[in-house]
Structure of Gfo/Idh/MocA family oxidoreductase:
Amino acid sequence: MGASEAGPIRLGLIGTGLAVEKLHWPALRRLPDRFVVTAFADRSAAQGERFSSYSGVDMAGFTPDHHRLLARDDVDAVLISVPIPSLYEVAEHSLAAGKDVLCEKPTGTDEEQAQAFLALEDRHPDRTILIGENYFYRDDIRHARALLDDGAIGKLHLMAWRRAGHLVPREGSFTSTPWRHRPQYRGGVYLDAGVHDIAQIRMLCGEITRVHAAVQWVNSTIDSPSDLTLNLAFAGGAIGNYTSTYSEIAVPEEPNDMRLYGTEGVLVLSGPEAERRVTLSRPDGTSQTDVFRGIDNGYYAELCNFSDAVRHGEPVVGTVGQSVANMLVVLRALDSAEQHAVMPLDELRGTGGVPLWRPRSASGLFDGLPGDRSRNTDISAGIDHPLISTVDSP
């Protein structure tokens, strides 16, 4: 079946909850030349009506049964955004129906299902499958990766990252989702949200060879570990520590920045979603900060990669294998905490790591992508200048 070469990809949405409303639809509506939503499925008619109301997609395209959506001839590909325990089953149905698939992460509920996802991909070599990991496509992370690839800090020897945040159920937010409170998947919040951080670590530091972890369960609103401290060893020789807390009580505001220490400099990723910053500090005391405003956290670029893969056979960065690798780091960390032992990650050796995505047929990292990017070359004066050198404005 697949997408025809004429016109935008005819997309079916399976699941129209918060992830579609807050993350995917804002990007989809900016890509009318690449996608048109022709059908959408959700078990909740009320949720379907809500999607129709803000998207303008007619309720004639709605069905509560995703099998009916998959039977439609005017659906070339699907975006699967359902609870984690249902991801594998819906992906399996979609591929069997001949659809290309963009599926939310992670690849299943545990290691067994992750391996089943890999086997599922092998059974459908003629279909495009992208597992949504927006951190692989985020502008600030890709820029930091390009700096590392260019040798901006020399040889990386240490990664340090601490993240602290307040997590309790709030109406209208992802924390309000009932299936997240009592998750039917191992690791709870760390297999759901934590895999994003693992993706960033792997993207910037390379493959992980060993982990040693400890956890705490001190948030009564979630049935999962709330705290994780994780020591890591990387294939390139660097070491690192990642410490995270999803706190039940409010915590003081913290920078939550990631620091990468090299033999010739230090790279710091910091800032809220509205203003991401990548600061390069050199041994001579000079520094530069690249500022990213109005970027969409990677969903726009992720959709571009998916459409280019479907239309033009471009490789995807968010492969099943990459998502499984992120999962395995979390799962081995949980194993380590439970067994009080260092756990190897032999499965990731020799995989080549995460490739750096660039827009198709583009010379720069950001050609055609939304957002404002500037370089502050005088930190004390706070003067922003157009971003130059390794960063290209669209």
Remarks:
- DSSP finds eleven helices and 17 strands in the chain.
- The chain has two domains: 9-127, 136-296+328-348.
- The chain has a mean pLDDT of 93.
- The first strand starts at residue 9 and ends at 14.
